[in-house]
Amino acid sequence: MKRKAAIGIFDSGIGGLTVAREIAAQLPHETLVYLGDTARLPYGSKSAETIIKYAVRNVSFLAESSLKAIVVACNTVSSVALPAIREVVDVPVLGVIDPGARTAVGASPSGVIGVIGQPGTIKSGRYESAILRLNPSARIYSRATPLLVPLAEEGWVGTEVARLVLLHYVEPLADKGIDTLVLGCTHYPLFKADLARLFREELKAAISLVDSAECLAKDLKAMLQEEDLAATEGVPSHRFFATDSTETFVRVGASFWGQDFPTVLHVDL
Questions:
Q1: Which of 8, 39, 100, 212: disulfide with 243, CB 3.0–4.6 Å?
Q2: Which region among 54-58, 117-121, 191-195, 229-233 has the lowest average model confidence (pLDDT)?
Q3: Looking at the structure, do residues 260 and 222 belong to the same domain, yes or no?
């Protein structure tokens, strides 16, 4: 029965756990099958052709399980590979960019919106095009912020080093008058408290922070309910896989998922 099928989730690494955690919170009866392609990260600096190749391989692995939806919990993959993924699976495929863009347009009174993300996401221009489809008069200022991923994975959230890096990245966007900032990488929700404090106390600017993990989980929940696919009872049996060291995945993953992080199995793709 499709209601009992799992939701497949993949990311280039650990950051997609922010999406998985939000899905688990909003859909507590759903079983998740998560793949972190940690052996090949980062995706953000790779070519579109390489990203598509990796994405199709990851989805093919997930599709070995009985699934009712696939969530691409990676902004870089969502920006270049969704059409290719949809060609190889017969279940709905959701990415993070469209939900984030829609939320940003709704949150911004002025239409002046900032986007931060990994280089591949920013280079693709997908957030800009998605936002402009919804609000053609929007003004969008984007910036690649690659240092935030290693800071998050090394547990440096909330430190003085993180504050200085964040200030360097977002001060030019604040100077443009943005009132909404899209966190265009699944690692970045870990910095929400740091960013809110930085805008409030140092940049003296009001800001709405758009967490694509929350937006995507809401879209997934609505889709499952509309299609009568949502699990309404039962205890989920999540399964987590990584293509590189599971020890590192568990150590870092606990800061994304929580201390009750489940067992992670290694898979060679």
A1: 39
A2: 117-121
A3: yes
Tell me which of 36-45, 75-84, 240-249 is least confident: 36-45
DSSP letter at 237 equals -
Domain encompassing residue 14: 2-95+214-266
pLDDT digits 0-9 by tens, 109-165: 999 999 999 888 898 899 999 999 999 999 999 999 999 988 988 889 999 999 999
160 with 148, same domain: the answer is yes
Tell me the C-alpha distance between 170 and 117, whole Å.
11
| pTM for this entry | 0.90
Q: Strands (DSSP E) along the chain, which ranges?
A: 6-11, 32-36, 67-72, 93-94, 112-117, 139-144, 180-184, 208-211, 239-242, 264-266
Q: Is 127 helix (H, G, I), strand (E, B) or coil?
A: helix
To the query of whether residue 185 is one of the catalytic residues in this protein, the response is yes
Q: Are 81 and 32 in contact (CB under 8 A)?
A: no
Q: 24, 181, 185, 231: which one is catalytic?
A: 185
Q: Which of 74, 85, 162, 215 is catalytic?
A: 74
pLDDT of residue 1 exceeding 70: no
| Number of residues assigned to the chain | 269
pLDDT in tens, 5-16: 999 999 988 889
Q: Are residues 233 and 138 in the same domain?
A: no
- Dist. CA 12–CA 14, nearest whole Å: 7
Active site includes 74? yes
> Residue 42, preceding bond cis, omega within 30 degrees?
yes
